[in-house]
Write a structure and sequence with these properties.
The chain is an alpha/beta fold and 246 residues long. The protein is built from 6 helices and 11 strands. Keywords: Amino-acid biosynthesis, Cytoplasm, Diaminopimelate biosynthesis, Lysine biosynthesis, NAD, NADP, Oxidoreductase.
């Protein structure tokens, strides 16, 4: 049995993680912690994997504390950038047996959409991303959309493609955030959950790849997949695609 502790257990995502772990035949729930709880309760004696779903302002400190306790971590909190990732890599050098996994998105449909889009990006002159979420989401654009844009940009560079054409003269913020040359637009609307459209175009044709997560339960198969892989690859791993044989 995999002993799983959950940080952020009473949150929107954490509560679903608790339910998913309780329903998994190969896992048992160890500890449930929330803001203000002492992470020193977590140790290798009671926990194999911690699932961390907190808030961007707290996530890095939580992960660093758990690394110091030599416990494997699966992170679903968004708001990660290269500077924060590098901080985690440096912390792991003193704990070579610990694994930290960070997922921009746990929805299998979204991971597959990103994978397909990266394959297609080298064939299209233009590419943009629209991400749509509920208004309670604290970051914009989403970590998923940023990660998707980075994957598209990498594929385009590898194919030797030129910059995406854009003759806009006055922006005023309407063209969204630019991530490695890819425009990313964020919509926050009541009634939405998590949705992403990747749009690509050539003269006379368009390809749209869209992934929709209508309920947070859609993320749980990906969370359980990451838990089952925890510890098998020490160090920092980013992206669920690494566990999906893509």
């Amino acid at each position: 049995m995999i002993r799983v502790s959950v940080v952020g257990a009473q949150g929107r995502m954490g509560s679903h993680v608790v339910a998913a772990v309780n329903s998994a035949s190969d896992m048992e729930l160890a500890l449930t912690l929330d803001a203000g709880d002492d992470l020193n309760q977590v140790s290798r004696e009671n926990t194999d994997v911690v699932v961390e779903f907190s808030v961007p302002s707290a996530s890095l400190d939580n992960v660093l504390a758990l690394i110091r306790h030599d416990v494997n971590v699966v992170v679903g909190t968004t708001g990660w950038n290269e500077e924060k990732l590098e901080t985690v890599r440096q912390a792991l050098t003193s704990h070579p047996d610990v694994s930290v996994f960070i997922a921009p998105n746990f929805a299998l449909s979204t991971v597959l959409a990103e994978h397909f889009a990266a394959q297609a990006a080298r064939y299209f002159e233009s590419a943009e991303i629209i991400e749509m979420h509920h208004p309670d989401k604290v970051d914009a654009p989403s970590g998923t959309a940023i990660h998707t844009a980075q994957k598209l940009a990498t594929a385009r560079r590898a194919a030797g493609m030129p910059a995406i054409p854009d003759n806009t003269q006055t922006d005023a913020g309407s063209r969204g955030q630019v991530v490695e040359g890819i425009h990313v637009h964020a919509v926050r609307l009541r009634g939405l959950n998590a949705h992403e459209e990747i749009l690509m175009g050539n003269a006379g044709e368009q390809l749209i790849i869209r992934a929709d997560s209508f309920d947070r339960t859609s993320f749980m198969p990906g969370v359980l997949l990451a838990i089952r892989h925890a510890g098998k690859t020490p160090g920092l791993t980013v992206g669920l695609d690494t566990y999906m044989d893509l």
